Amino acid sequence: MTIADSILPEFDMEMAGTRKTLERIPDDKLDWKAHPGSNTIGWVASHLVEIAGWVEGTLTKDTWDINPEGGEPYKSVQLQSQQEILDLFDANVAQARKLIEDTSDEEFAKSWSLLSGGQALITMPKIGVIRTWVLNHSIHHRAHLCVYLRLNNIPVPALYGPSGDEQV
């Protein structure tokens, strides 16, 4: 079994659960935040969308400099509606899935580095980046989004079994 074959079922399951959660966000709640120090629902949703898009840079490049000297620093996308969120999420997930499917075990084993101003912040095998910074990171922020939904009396989807609002 290839690395791609082993990780795609998990990727598919987690992205489907993330989409189910994103579908619950009403446009009129995108600016809501749980606390002045918290991000908005719209920021969390936009971040989930961009995380799925990180697969492309991870699997097709060996580094990503988020603050390149003499260049523009990375800025997160800020989507303005549920439809924009779902459309870009679906596009990013489809591209990511195809890239994972087409990536060789040798490429997954190569090192990848996140840089800031040319300095390495993180260096790990590409498969580790996919597992940690795409899958686990998505799960982490999806959990925040589920709490935000609950605090707004928006039904939380069943993800790993029933939720308080939805039976499997």
Your description of this structure?
A three-stranded mixed beta sheet has the order 1-2-3. The longest helix has 26 residues, at 126-151. With 168 residues, the chain is mainly alpha-helical. The two termini are 31 Å apart. 55% of the residues lie in helices and 10% in strands. It has five helices and three strands, in the order ααβααββα.
Number of discrete helical segments = 5
What is the CA-CA span between the terminal residues? 31 Å
- The largest beta-sheet arranges its strands as 1-2-3
Low-confidence spans: none
Percentage of β-strand residues: 5-15%
Largest sheet: 3 strands, mixed
> Which term fits the overall shape?
globular
Order of helices and strands: HHEHHEEH
Structural class: mainly alpha
Fraction in helix: 40-55%
Overall mean pLDDT stands at 97
| E-strand count | 3
The rounded Rg comes to 17 Å
Topology summary:
Layout: H1 3-22, H2 41-60, E1 63-65, H3 82-102, H4 105-109, E2 111-116, E3 119-125, H5 126-151
Parallel strand pairs: 1-2
Antiparallel strand pairs: 2-3
Helix pairs in contact: 1-3, 1-5, 2-3, 2-5
Short recap of the structure:
The protein is mainly α and 168 residues long.
Keywords:
5 helices; single chain; mainly alpha; 168 residues
